[in-house]
Design brief:
mainly alpha; single chain
Length: 126
């Protein structure tokens, strides 16, 4: 990581992809540190009580949010590092996987269509 940071610092324009990876990796490290702090606060609160009270449940929810943030950032880092990740390939060069033919025609559900007017089918039937 140190060598990558030095290369990006020397010429950020030449290493834009690496700069993006480094930025997300730093955010991942920050999220991990925040998670560890939240877990430490929760463990400390749980060690001092027999029943879980509302403030302790708030700490547990903070741990849950920290895990979610950390996992999301880890997913981004994994995606950035994977050259074969979905969305990274040039779809113009891949064969089309769409079904041939037109899409199936649909109509809006009853009551959600255009407002009734004198030319609407409902008005004609009356």
């Amino acid at each position: 990581m140190d060598q990558l940071e030095q290369a990006v610092a020397a010429d950020p324009q030449a290493h834009t992809e690496a700069a993006t990876i480094l930025r997300w990796h730093r955010m991942l490290a920050e999220s991990q540190a925040a998670l560890e702090r939240a877990e430490d606060r929760l463990v400390a609160a749980l060690q001092t009580q027999h029943d879980v009270d509302d403030p302790t449940m708030d700490l547990a929810r903070a741990v849950d949010r920290a895990v979610t943030a950390r996992d999301g950032r880890a997913s981004v880092v994994r995606w950035l590092l994977d050259p074969d990740a979905l969305g990274k390939k040039d779809y113009e060069t891949e064969p089309r996987r769409r079904r041939p033919g037109p899409a199936v025609a649909t109509s809006p559900p009853p009551g959600l269509g255009a407002p009734a007017s004198s030319t609407s089918p409902a008005a004609v039937r009356r």
